[in-house]
Design goal:
mainly alpha, two-stranded antiparallel ribbon, 19 helices
Length: 493
């Protein structure tokens, strides 16, 4: 049932349009349409993954038109797990929104539109359609960030719109250079055509630079990250969790696919400055992002800068250029989506129940919210890289890959980032468990001066599931590498 691959893109587009029509007659129908869409996405993504595991990678020609002129979607050992991740996080976030908000038909329509963009971005086998899905993802995210209706949210959305458009323009310009040089936009055809043109052709080098900078903006590598802290901090909690888990994850996946599926490892070997520049940019992002996270007082900004650092780790794994490091980068890509979604959703629980906004506001909440705090602690330790959770195998493989490649500085950077991650998450855990609350000593008063709310069991259960998923994926890391392996064997043959 390979039609499941194209339905993963079509179904959310239909779900995005339905509330506009049905909502005229039945207000509030959007949440039920979004729930049905999310459940269907999970089922379809599992079908795609099962097809890949049993029959291997496959492609789908949309409307029967063969590439390079038709649109091609790819299901393989890397795209299939990412599609499962997108569908699972979408279902969790839709359920979370039922209790936390925002609600309304327009919100669920925009969320479904974003799901379509993310799914298409991961499944496409064409560099121009990748641009189209990048734009769909960006447009939906701009609208969702602004949905809080506050001046700060409007500013964050406008900033993301401007910076994101510049990034997309860089990417599109690079695609144009590739088309001029090779005459094709299909990823598989580009891999052979670029070799024929020559890896050191000025057009090819310019295309690589422009595409990497464009995707670097979307991934939010330092210093191209400026849109991210505001977008994460000013969005409603549900939206922060969704875009933190998936938007930059899909962009980092696109960077991996472009580097290995289009330019190939032979390009990295033939143009060592390209590989070295990627490594340097990623290493700087790892350290600077972590240092900026350490000095933050706002919880969501701290988690945003943490993402700048951890996506730097993913790009390090992609840039080193061997199978071990790439496996580590891909594991951390999947794991970061689960961990960061859970952390933002946990912050949402603290904010709804106790008005938490800053690190200081966490004081003493470990006893008031023991289950959520325990899940938060598990996710935090996983981000540090403490086994057996999913944060460990990703970092470990990146370090081993760096040692195999003789890149000892990279190995030191990864270890240093783990210590810095322990530094800023250690502050949060110390506040949760070992600091007596001042503002919340009277538990009838929230940190922001309001009255405490009874946090739904559903919200807490979703956070706990995220923590359990982080541990489960850690135990399943070897099997995850086995799923990636056929794709990596093609790239490193």
């Amino acid at each position: 049932m390979t039609d499941a691959l194209v339905l993963l893109v079509v179904a959310p587009i239909v779900a995005a349009l339905l509330p506009l029509g049905i909502g005229l007659f039945i207000r509030g129908s959007g949440q039920y349409i979004a729930l049905a869409m999310a459940v269907l996405q999970v089922a379809l993504s599992v079908v795609v993954l099962e097809e890949v595991l049993t029959a291997g990678a496959f492609s789908y020609e949309v409307a029967g038109y063969a590439p390079p002129f038709g649109i091609e979607l790819i299901g393989d050992g890397v795209s299939a797990p990412l599609l499962v991740l997108i569908a699972s996080v979408t279902l969790a976030v839709v359920l979370y929104s039922f209790r936390s908000g925002p609600q309304g038909d327009s919100f669920y329509g925009e969320l479904a539109f974003l799901t379509a963009g993310l799914s298409g971005l991961v499944a496409t086998g064409d560099v121009f359609n990748l641009y189209v899905f990048l734009e769909i993802t960006g447009l939906a995210t701009y609208a969702l960030v602004a949905s809080d209706s506050s001046p700060a949210a409007a500013y964050a959305s406008l900033k993301y719109l401007i910076v994101g458009t510049i990034g997309a323009s860089f990417y599109l310009l690079g695609v144009g250079y590739l088309l001029v040089a090779t005459g094709t936009l299909n990823m598989a055809d580009l891999a052979s055509s670029i070799a024929d043109v020559g890896y050191t052709s000025p057009l090819i080098l310019a295309a690589f630079g422009l595409i990497v900078v464009g995707l670097g903006v979307k991934v939010a590598l330092f210093p191209l990250h400026t849109w991210q802290p505001d977008a994460y901090a000013e969005s409603p909690h549900t939206i922060s969790a969704y875009i933190a888990a998936l938007v930059s994850t899909a962009a980092a996946y696109a960077l991996f696919r472009i580097v290995y599926g289009v330019f190939t490892v032979d390009f990295l070997a033939a143009v060592p400055i390209a590989r070295d520049t990627l490594l340097a940019a990623a290493g700087i992002s790892v350290i600077v992002g972590a240092v900026l996270a350490v000095v933050q007082r706002d919880l969501k900004r701290m988690l945003a800068y943490s993402s700048v650092s951890h996506f730097g780790l993913v790009v390090l794994g992609v840039s080193i250029g061997n199978e071990t490091a790439l496996a580590g980068g891909l594991i951390h890509l999947v794991g970061h989506g689960v961990m960061k979604a859970g952390l933002f959703l946990a912050v949402g629980v603290f904010a709804i129940g106790a008005g938490v906004r800053t690190v200081r506001d966490l004081s003493g909440l470990g006893t008031r919210y023991p289950v959520t705090s325990a899940a938060f602690a598990i996710l935090a330790f996983s981000m540090v890289g403490v086994p057996p959770a999913i944060g460990f195998p990703g970092k470990w493989n990146i370090i081993m890959g760096a040692v195999e490649a003789g890149e000892w500085v990279v190995a030191v950077i990864v270890v240093t980032s783990a210590l810095l991650t322990l530094g800023y998450f250690g502050r949060l855990l110390e506040r949760l468990y070992f600091t007596e609350s001042v503002a919340n000593s009277d538990q009838s008063v929230k940190a922001d001066g309001g009255h405490p709310e009874d946090v739904s069991i559903l919200l807490r259960a979703i956070v706990v599931l995220a923590a359990l998923a982080a541990i489960g994926l850690g135990f399943w890391a070897s099997e995850l590498i086995d799923v990636f392996q056929p794709v990596m064997e093609v790239y490193f043959t």
